[in-house]
Design goal:
325 residues; alpha/beta; two-stranded antiparallel ribbon; binds ligand PBG
Length: 325
């Protein structure tokens, strides 16, 4: 018997049909918008290597959050630049630290906006590493207690979710334990489970002033050559109690996102990082690419690869685009 020739183009002939058979759809509800908070008043300082991204002071946060809300965004990820840095990153868990103040301000003024905080020491240490140094080496176990204190201080200030990005071994368990002991059982952990030692973080390190002064992060971040290791890291974080597993960066690691999606039942997040954002911005500024289309295609591809949640500096732009559709 002869089958009629299959002609997919019948179903592609117009947008109504393309929309009918579309396999992946994005919505503003799956996006998380990162914000950099810095000391001072009325500060809105552009980040040179990330056009469209600003470091803002605490008093500017509520207005920013309301603008996001109007676009349909429900989630912010906060990064803090402290007044002072020291070798042990005390600013990370100070009761009146920059992030703690930022969370309180947002929870007071825009309570429905969900606040996730970055839990790491690199923005708070004078040497720029993600942990405590002993003999110039990051000491994993000495760092865990401080990270746990930071996460607890965020929860106390009102954070809805914490996102440890330091890559110390055992931090998810440590953070889960301290949160539970203090009645924050309902605060989930979005773990940067699979974080590569990547050159794509360059512009972020400008924004957060957190480039390591000596050495690099290869001791605790993953080798881009490895994918089986990604599964091991994710398994550990899941066993320690992570609620969401994150892959970072996103575009250069779509295969890793897909592998995690296939192996795990937990929600998967992907961080479309600063360098990935900056490259689109730079090419668009030259007039070499169509920024909106490249942005939309990039974020859609991250979603199609298997990420339920996307953290991106393009969240506002993407939310605007989704509105028009
Ligand atoms: C560490 C942290 C970094 C990023 C998010 N959390 C920097 C790093 O690991 O060096 C990078 C995010 C980006 O590049 O957009 N606190």
């Amino acid at each position: 018997m002869m089958f009629p020739e299959y002609r997919p183009r019948r179903l592609r002939r117009n947008e109504q049909f393309r929309s009918l058979i579309r396999e992946t759809r994005m919505s503003a509800g799956q996006l998380i918008y990162p914000l950099f908070v810095q000391p001072g008043r009325k500060v809105r300082e552009p980040v040179g290597s990330m056009p469209g991204v600003f470091r803002i002071s605490v008093d500017q946060l509520a207005a920013e959050a309301r603008e996001c809300q109007e676009l349909g965004l429900n989630h912010l990820l906060l990064f803090g630049l402290p007044d002072k840095k020291d070798p042990v990153g005390s600013g990370a868990h100070a009761k009146d630290g920059i992030i703690q103040r930022a969370i309180r301000e947002l929870k007071n003024k825009v309570p429905e906006m969900m606040i996730t905080t970055d839990v790491c020491l690199c923005e708070y240490t004078s040497h720029g590493h993600c942990g405590i140094l002993i003999d110039k080496q990051v000491d994993n176990d000495a760092t865990l207690e401080i990270l746990a204190q930071a996460a607890l201080s965020h929860a106390r200030a009102g954070a809805d979710m914490v996102a440890p990005s330091d890559m110390m071994d055992g931090r998810v368990a440590e953070i889960r334990q301290i949160l539970d002991e203090n009645n924050f059982e309902r605060v989930p952990i979005m773990s940067y489970a699979v974080k590569y030692a990547s050159a794509f973080y360059g512009p972020f390190r400008d924004a957060a002033e957190c480039a390591p002064q000596e050495g690099d992060r290869q001791g605790y971040q993953m080798d881009p050559a490895n994918s089986r290791e990604a599964l091991r890291e994710a398994t550990l974080d899941m066993e320690e109690g992570a609620d969401i597993l994150m892959v970072k960066p996103a575009v250069a690691y779509l295969d890793i996102i897909r592998q995690l999606r296939d192996e795990f039942d937990l929600p998967i997040a992907a961080y479309h990082v600063s360098g990935e954002y900056a490259m689109i911005k730079a090419a668009a500024a030259q007039g070499w690419i169509d920024e909106k289309r490249v942005m939309a295609e990039t974020l859609l591809s991250i979603h199609r690869a298997g990420a339920d949640i996307i953290i991106t500096y393009y969240a506002k732009e993407m939310a605007k685009l989704l509105r028009n559709v």
